[in-house]
Fold Elongation factor 4.
Amino acid sequence: QRQKYIRNFSIVAHIDHGKSTLADRILELTDTVAKRDMKNQILDNMPVERERGITVKLNAVQLTYHAKDGHDYIFHLIDTPGHADFSYEVSRSLAACEGAILVVDASQGVEAQTIANVYLAIKDNLKIIPDINKIDLPSAQPEKTKKEIEDVIGIDASNAAETSAKYGTGVPDLMEKIVHDIPAPKGDVAGPLKALVFDSAYDDYRGVVLSVRLYSGYVKVGDRIRMMNGKHEFTVTEVGVNSPKPIAKKYLMAGDVGYITASIKDITTTRVGDTVTKVDRPAKHPLPGYKERKPMVYAGLYPTSNSKFEELRESLEKLKLNDAALEFKPESSKALGFGFRCGFLGLLHMSVVQERLEQEFNMSLITTAPSVTYKAILNDGKVKKVENPYDMPDPGTTKEIEEPYVKVTVMTPSKYIGAVMKLCQDRRGQYKTMRYLDKYHVDIVYSMPLSEIIYDFYDHLKSKTRGYASYTYELEGYKPSDLVKIDILLNGDKVDALSFISHRSFAYSRSREMVTKLKKLIPRQNFEIPVQAAIGAKIIARATIKPYRKDVTGPLYGGDQTRKDKLLKKQKEGKKRMKAVGKVVIPQSAFMAVFKTD
Ligand code: GDP
Ligand code: MG
């Protein structure tokens, strides 16, 4: 029986521990990719992944491994991202697998996302194969790392694989471990079709491409299928696997990981987490699916040209198919026109979305500063959710403002305890607990406002601990805070997209910082531009942008339309995004000034 020779597994790890490089070696060893087509981290095929050198999307490939027992095994390997913002990709990948390879960098040891990701795998009852990677490094400590895995995570690592994904050492042994340790998929091929949609993408020619894991039954071209939650029905036009290029197959059966297309053009009809079944013989119950992720931060996305609003909507809808965590709804701004308020899982997610919209959908965008969602308790007791700082009601009309708090767990070598605690306290953190994981590591738990950690907490944490500390966080709930809304006025006009919320104790210092930065970032005009920060009607900080001397940059930002057009075109090409607000031109960097603290 074919299922006996199938192995489905994900590769999980903290960022940079070598998942994608290990996938490269596995693809090479099995001749899945021709030598001449091979390149580093070949599964990181999106432009944004290659530019940044990180994995953003899960990527499922099929390959054939000729094992020592003489049999050919079909491996479905899913490479996953390591950054916390993309853990939704990891949990969806794991739901399609029986096993996971837990890669741990032998020079770094166990880090926060190692723990977070392995817990996801344990929760799903997957067989976990620990793999100590980068053993070629002089600083590698395989034995210490194994002990850490046992002490910190609590799984047996005595039989862990040891690899150098870079040079291929140990990878053949790991392949054998996959064959022997990871169970073959179960599931009744003769039963009704149940296929879990764990990912999707939009293709201009084929329509929606569903990535599926079949748990029972089989599917082939011509079958009438139904989305069990969405209820929509389609006729299958192609089934196949990625290897890593798409290869059409006659059918997919229980245990397989592959794709289905069905000329689905209406992107709203399919959903990640849904179950595909057949119309003539439907399954009784859908598969469990996934818990939806709630966005952590919101920001406005506006086309630099107002006429591109509809195009942006279409692009967002298509992107959402491939990025299930993305949320958006239309909003308008006096300064920026029509755009969308978008919800993201974190700042990296936000900048990846922006880049994908530009690279894959050819949009030119202005993004406003990210903000968490506040709750304003109004005088009449009503609660108003505030996703855009500008919408914060006036101080006189509110009883209280609440902000989201998170439980932050920082994992650090014990010698940095002092530095980590100081950082957390400076950011309004309340100490909860500390626990020694082993002799050298502790995890420290703080309750902190989400707004204090989403921006640059990571950078500060890394620099204060020589890169050795890592952290994760989860939402705790809303707590009242002494917050104020600060408006920014340019040339006397409030620019709604620049408003921000600050704790009262930082209001003056942040306002001063903000106007000073805007003064530097906003191009001069032929008139003086006052930049002011205000709480209500009260101005609390001010700077002035001096006019330029006429002869130097004279006509650059003047009224001449053809020049303006040329300029806009040039900006678009150079991705120097700007927006004219009244008579003032505001560059993209100005919208971000609010949260990039030095
Ligand atoms: P991922 O984030 O877990 O997918 O990690 P990548 O596969 O992108 O690798 C991160 C970095 O570590 C890259 O620069 C790789 O070349 C490097 N790397 C991966 N595996 C090894 C290894 O076994 N030895 C050494 N020396 N470097 C490695
Ligand atoms: Mg990777």
Observations:
- The chain has 15 helices and 33 strands.
- Residues 347-361 form the longest helix (15 residues).
